[in-house]
Each structure stands twice: as structure tokens, then as C-alpha cells.
């Protein structure tokens, strides 16, 4: 099996040594999957047996090839600079509103697509601590993704603030109790990930947000590992600020721009620090002093990455068509199936992710001392998970592009490589 062009090919070409029970279980799950047809909409990958890293980089949709070509021949070549007046200027907020509606539970005017996750984290975190003058503490956790921790370390040094670290159980994640013990009248900002990048643990976003608010602090949520896979309701849950990338479950492609959410009630209070011409009230006035735009547009700094926004439009259309509840249901079915396989067939492997589906995102971490070698060999054979030190194999399952047969085939090879 070297070039599975579709979900049907994968189901028909499971490895010959796959246990019969596992083969039958995968086939039954695929047959019952209401989202199975979406797998065929993604571009085939030469030599691929199983792609188990959709939480790092989503697969491209076949439709995106035509969208990119049409963009070159259409608005870029045919309309040239006129396209700024014909849609490009509004693309960051227009696409942000679509993203908010489809995947964030956010009303219009609160989401913008621009910059990278790192840049937006800096903008919002700096703005948040400045909006709480006199408070000297930022609360974060030691298990968060390096970018989040590094950005906060820089801001703390820049503004003379204290970082108060929560050290959670790596598999249980940050709990409301952890946050309650860390925040107080001196807390300006709490920054946490909704889904932990290692274990896949889903934090109790509504409860933690309430606890931070009771202490008078703002909360910034990193949604990189949840947007497009785990339903969100930012408005209803009272979220202040959020950021996330678009190249994982939103399939925006490598380096696709990130997004930022800023609640409407804070938009007159929070001022981001990177003052660029595209975030000015009148970008083309070219005046001597910066005056920020009103509303969400104030978060923009430089020229919007218009080309980088194109691929996620196709994926957002698919997510909206499928519906986030159905996407979440398949995500849980996939991760549950992965755990079943690990428990029954992967000798010596420990599941290092939550068993409770309510606390589990769309990836799981498997633990074994030989996984560094195994992942390298699996990549050479067309099975693509990823490795996280010290000995974790992360299985990232993008619901609309992953079949149960593909998952079974991939973990079957992992089983063989373990010996």
C-alpha cells in the first residue's frame, strides 16, 4: 500500500497481518461514520499509509489547489492592487467573523485573522497586563507549549512582572482548583491552553474563566489544539481573549495566519502594543500620530496575509457543513478507538491521556521508552505520528480527514515496530 487516494482505498488495503478483530472493528466504525465521505475530499499523499499528525499540520483539501490557482489568475493577476478595495482590506475581519461563527461561538466583530500565534499571544498578553495596572502577577503553567511560556517570560521581564507557575499533573492538566490556588488580588492575567499539547487534556474553560474573573484578572486562552475539533462557546463562557493557529484542524497550511478573539466589552479598554498602519483608524491618512481603529481591527498591525487565508476558507466551509457537534463526536470515536488499540494490541504501551471523553481533545499521547526510534522508523514506512520527549508518541486525529481504517493501519505498524 503506497498511495491510498481515498478512504475506500484505505479500508480495502489494511495490512495483511492486522488482527481480524481489529480489521472488523475498523470496518464497522467506518461503515457507521456519517462523516466518512469527507475523507475523500483531501489531497492524496504519495507513499502514505496513515497520517496520525493532523494536530500538527492538517492535510490539504483538493479544492484548495483550484482556489489558489484561481486567486493567482483572478484577483491578483486580473485586478492587481484594485483587489485591496474589492475585498482584501476586509479579509482579516470578514474571515474572522466566519471563523467565529463556525468554530468559536463568537458573534461578529470579535475575531480577526492576522500574524502568527506567537505575535498574537504577545499582543494580547501585553495588552491584558497593561489593562490591569497595579497588578503584578501573571499566572501560567509549566506544561504549556514553549511559545506561551517564552512569550510570558519576555513580557514579565519587559514590564517588571512576576510569573506565578502552576505545575499540574502532566496527564490531568490544569484544574479549576489549581487556578483558584494561584490567583488573587495581585493577578493581572491568566494564560492557559484549552487543550494540552501533550496529553490532550481539555481544561474546564468556563469554570477557570469564572475563577479568574472573581479575582479581577483577565484570561487569555490558547485554542491551538481545540479550534476545529472541540466545540467552543467563547461569548457564552465570558472569555476575554483568545488566540489560535489555523494549520492544525483548520487545514490552513504551513505558516497560515493565526486568529485572535477580543471580547466586544473589552475593545475600548485593551490596547495592543504593536502599532502598525493597518490597525490605524485611517490607514491611508498617513498621519504623523497613531490613532487605533475601533473594534477588532485595532489588533491588526501590518499588511494582512491574504494568500495565507485562502486554504482555511475551504476547511471552514466543510466544518460548517458537517457541524461541530458531529466533528466532536467523530473525534471522540477516533481517540477512543486509538485507546482501544493501545490497550489491547500495543504491549508495554501506556495511554498518557484522559480516559474521560469530556476531558479529552482530538489527540492522545502514548508512552513507551522506545518510541523515539519507533516514530523515526514509522515515518520511513509511511505512518506519520509525532514524537514528544521524553518518550511520547502523539496520535493526532483530524476528524474530517481520518478514517478508522487509516488509524488501525497506522497503529498496526507501530505494534510491529515495537516487536
Automatic annotation (TrEMBL):
EC numbers, comma separated: 3.7.1.3
Named cofactor requirement(s): pyridoxal 5'-phosphate
Gene3D superfamilies, per the entry: Aspartate Aminotransferase, domain 1, Type I PLP-dependent aspartate aminotransferase-like (Major domain)
Keyword annotations of the record: Aminotransferase, Hydrolase, Pyridine nucleotide biosynthesis, Pyridoxal phosphate, Transferase
Broad EC category: hydrolase
Pathway involvement of the protein, from the record: Amino-acid degradation; L-kynurenine degradation; L-alanine and anthranilate from L-kynurenine: step 1/1; Cofactor biosynthesis; NAD(+) biosynthesis; quinolinate from L-kynurenine: step 2/3
Domain of life assignment: Bacteria
Keyword Secreted annotated: no
Reactions listed under catalytic activity: L-kynurenine + H2O = anthranilate + L-alanine + H(+); 3-hydroxy-L-kynurenine + H2O = 3-hydroxyanthranilate + L-alanine + H(+)
Keyword flag Hydrolase: yes
GO molecular function terms listed in the Swiss-Prot or TrEMBL record: transaminase activity
Record note on quaternary structure: Homodimer.
Family to which this protein belongs: Belongs to the DegT/DnrJ/EryC1 family. Belongs to the kynureninase family.
Function: Catalyzes the cleavage of L-kynurenine (L-Kyn) and L-3-hydroxykynurenine (L-3OHKyn) into anthranilic acid (AA) and 3-hydroxyanthranilic acid (3-OHAA), respectively.
UniProt xrefs under PANTHER family: KYNURENINASE
Name the UniProt record assigns to this protein: Kynureninase
Organism, scientific name: Promicromonospora umidemergens
Amino acid at each position: 500500500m503506497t498511495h491510498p487516494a481515498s478512504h475506500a482505498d484505505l479500508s480495502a488495503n489494511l495490512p495483511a497481518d492486522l488482527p481480524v478483530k481489529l480489521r472488523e472493528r475498523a470496518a464497522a466504525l467506518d461503515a457507521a461514520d456519517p462523516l466518512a465521505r469527507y475523507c475523500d475530499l483531501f489531497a492524496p499523499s504519495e507513499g502514505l499509509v496513515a497520517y496520525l499528525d493532523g494536530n500538527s499540520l492538517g492535510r490539504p483539501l483538493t479544492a484548495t489547489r483550484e482556489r489558489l490557482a484561481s486567486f493567482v489568475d483572478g484577483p491578483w493577476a486580473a485586478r492587481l492592487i484594485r483587489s485591496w478595495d474589492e475585498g482584501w482590506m476586509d479579509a482579516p475581519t470578514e474571515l474572522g467573523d466566519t471563523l467565529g461563527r463556525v468554530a468559536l461561538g463568537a458573534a461578529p466583530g470579535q475575531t480577526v485573522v492576522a500574524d502568527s500565534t506567537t505575535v498574537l499571544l504577545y499582543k494580547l498578553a501585553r495588552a491584558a497586563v497593561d489593562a490591569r495596572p497595579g497588578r503584578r502577577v501573571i499566572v501560567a503553567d509549566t506544561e504549556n507549549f514553549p511559545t506561551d511560556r517564552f512569550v510570558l517570560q519576555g513580557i514579565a521581564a519587559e514590564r517588571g512582572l512576576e510569573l506565578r507557575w502552576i505545575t499540574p499533573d502532566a496527564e490531568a492538566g490544569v484544574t479549576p482548583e489549581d487556578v483558584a490556588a494561584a490567583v488573587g488580588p495581585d493577578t493581572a492575567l491568566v494564560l492557559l491552553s484549552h487543550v494540552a499539547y501533550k496529553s490532550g487534556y481539555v481544561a474546564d474553560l468556563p469554570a477557570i474563566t469564572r475563577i479568574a474573573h472573581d479575582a479581577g484578572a483577565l484570561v487569555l486562552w490558547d485554542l491551538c489544539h481545540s479550534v476545529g475539533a472541540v466545540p467552543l462557546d467563547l461569548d457564552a463562557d465570558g472569555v476575554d481573549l483568545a488566540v489560535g493557529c489555523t494549520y492544525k484542524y483548520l487545514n490552513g497550511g504551513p505558516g497560515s495566519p493565526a486568529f485572535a478573539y477580543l471580547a466586544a466589552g473589552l475593545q475600548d479598554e485593551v490596547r495592543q502594543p504593536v502599532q502598525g498602519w493597518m490597525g490605524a483608524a485611517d490607514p491611508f491618512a498617513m498621519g504623523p500620530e497613531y490613532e487605533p481603529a475601533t473594534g477588532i481591527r485595532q489588533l491588526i498591525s501590518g499588511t494582512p496575509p491574504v494568500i495565507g487565508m485562502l486554504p482555511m476558507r475551504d476547511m471552514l466551509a466543510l466544518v460548517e457543513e458537517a457541524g461541530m457537534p458531529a466533528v466532536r463526536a467523530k473525534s471522540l470515536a477516533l481517540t477512543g478507538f486509538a485507546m482501544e488499540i493501545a490497550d489491547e494490541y500495543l504491549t508495554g504501551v501506556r495511554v498518557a491521556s484522559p480516559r474521560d471523553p469530556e476531558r479529552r481533545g482530538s489527540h492522545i499521547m502514548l508512552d513507551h521508552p522506545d518510541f523515539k526510534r519507533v516514530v523515526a522508523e514509522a515515518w520511513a514506512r509511511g505512518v506519520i505520528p509525532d514524537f514528544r520527549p521524553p518518550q511520547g508518541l502523539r496520535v493526532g486525529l483530524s476528524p474530517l480527514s481520518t478514517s478508522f481504517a487509516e488509524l488501525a493501519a497506522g497503529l498496526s505498524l507501530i505494534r510491529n515496530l515495537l516487536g
